[in-house]
Amino acid sequence: MRPNQHLQCKDYPCKDISKKNHTIPNIDIDTDKITTLMIAEAPSENPQDNFYAPNNPFHLQTTLQAFRDAGKNPCSIQDILNLGIYLTTTIKCPKTTYTITPETINNCTARILEHELNLFPNLKTILLMGDTAIKALNLIARRTTGKPLIPSGPTYKMRKNTYHYKGLRVYPTYLQTGKSYLIEKSKRTMIAEDLKAALQNH
Question: What is the CATH number for 124?
Answer without folding.
Answer: 3.40.470.10
